[in-house]
Design brief:
By secondary structure, this protein is an all-alpha fold. Helices cover 75% and strands 0% of the residues. It contains 10 helices and no strands. The longest helix has 39 residues. It is elongated and about 110 Å long. The N and C termini lie far apart (121 Å). The N terminus is likely disordered.
Length: 256
């Protein structure tokens, strides 16, 4: 009789082990499972049932892990686009960890999905804001008359969330494309205007002739890069003028 009892004990031990494994997977998934009564079902049948349930739970874990991994990758991409730190989103505890520690309950996935949707909207709003800024800058650079400017592309019709709708974004992109075409046609004139603006602030700052000559002699062949170089210099000189306003005023009075 002892060998038979030994087999029964091993089967029961296996049942308990399988039951623990099933409970661990179910807890990870947030799924409720019924408590097993070993006195009502033959042990062999119970083992088969547990093994089947465990296989199904493992498959569900794998599917949710794949979905969570995919969402985690998108979160990282969106946060980089928004120049945000994951710590600031309260997602680090949910998403950072190994396979054993990351919870895969439906509520966890739904929370990440909701956060993802929010981040997607923010990225769209940022894209809309960037487009409006580019359009507005080109309007000023090209000196486009007010009556020829798009109210939507100027951000005057609606807020960013509404502007971020794809139909509105497409209209703004088309306006930006039109302005970029105008810019290419008028680049020589734009550069000349930029140089005139720089000359004006140089005079206000009383920048010496040698300094001016060195800067102008370092011009770049690429027109876009040269325009950026001139605008950056103009901006630096304007900041310097603003910071030394009183000193420059006294100097101008003294030289009169």
């Amino acid at each position: 009789h002892l060998p038979g009892l030994c087999f029964i004990s091993l089967d029961l031990f296996l049942c308990r082990s399988l039951e623990d494994n099933e409970a661990r997977l179910a807890t990870k998934l947030g799924i409720a499972i019924d408590k097993k009564d070993f006195s009502l079902v033959p042990v062999v049948e119970m083992i088969g049932s547990l093994e089947k349930n465990i296989e199904e739970l493992k498959q569900e874990v794998e599917e949710r892990e794949m979905k969570m991994f995919s969402m985690k990758e998108e979160v990282v991409v969106l946060l980089e686009a928004l120049e945000m730190d994951m710590n600031a989103t309260n997602l680090d505890e949910m998403l950072v960890g190994n396979e054993e520690t990351v919870s895969l309950k439906k509520t966890d996935l739904e929370k990440v999905e909701a956060t993802l949707e929010n981040l997607r909207k923010k990225v769209k709003c940022k894209e809309a804001e960037t487009l409006v800024q580019k359009v507005s800058k080109l309007y000023e650079r090209l000196r486009v008359p007010q009556e020829e400017r798009s109210a939507l592309a100027s951000g005057q019709v609606c807020g960013l969330e509404e502007l971020a709708r794809e139909d509105n974004m497409e209209e703004v992109r088309q306006e930006l494309g039109r302005l970029l075409g105008m810019k290419e046609d008028m680049m020589s004139e734009i550069l000349q205007n930029a140089r005139q603006d720089l000359e004006r602030v140089w005079m206000l700052r009383r920048v010496g002739a040698r300094t001016r000559a060195v800067f102008l002699a370092s011009s770049l062949e690429d027109q876009d890069e040269e325009l950026l170089r001139i605008e950056e210099e103009t901006g630096c000189v304007e900041e310097d003028i603003s910071a030394n306003k009183e000193l420059l005023k006294k100097l101008a009075t003294f030289l009169q």
